[in-house]
Description:
Helix content: 40-55%
Strand content: 15-25%
Largest sheet: 6 strands, mixed
Strand order of the largest sheet: 7-6-5-8-9-10
Number of domains: 1
Number of strands: 10
Distance between the termini: 32 Å
Shape: globular
Radius of gyration: 17 Å
Structural class: alpha/beta
Amino acid sequence: MIFNKHTARKTAEVLLQINAIKLNPKEPFTWASGWKSPIYCDNRIVLSYPTIRNYIRETMAKYIEKQYGKPDVIAGVATGAIGIGMLVAEYLSVPFIYVRPKAKEHGRQNQIEGYAESGQNVVVVEDLISTGKSSLNAVKALKEANLNVKGMVAIFSYGFDVSKENFEKENVTLHTLGNYDTLLEQALDTNYISQKELKTLSEWNANPSEWNAI
């Protein structure tokens, strides 16, 4: 679920403005899952633009406080959401921790880095939601550490049916600044994509696991 339509449109505008959205239908990107994709969203680029990262930070932080009250801790999902998660925590003046995909195999063998106390309220920050599996893996680790996960906020979601199903199954609420449909609207309105590219991007989003460029 997006925060609201205005925020979704503004988020799409700034992501397109800094070329965080990469399009290459003819030579698709390959995701870690093996899926072929004509689009790649790299929200880490946000950190290199102070005005835009401040917009993301403040919008996220204010929404978190409105939706959940001030949490005890903000948790970022490694590695993509460490930077923006820390900025949100700083804005709210609360502690920050981050969650690795799995526990380290050396040293203290932590999966959760930073300090949080059992029973504390945590809001998880993500940069991007695709299937939701890695995000929910972080939630699982936090819950196993006896932390109370209030919900998750992310910059952007591709809006796949499988991600909605995964979040519903785990009973985790997700809110995002932007979403795929609004991104396509903004991209078309600003001539970032053509009608032909819009058709390709819509077809891919409807069935990403089976899509190919041929």
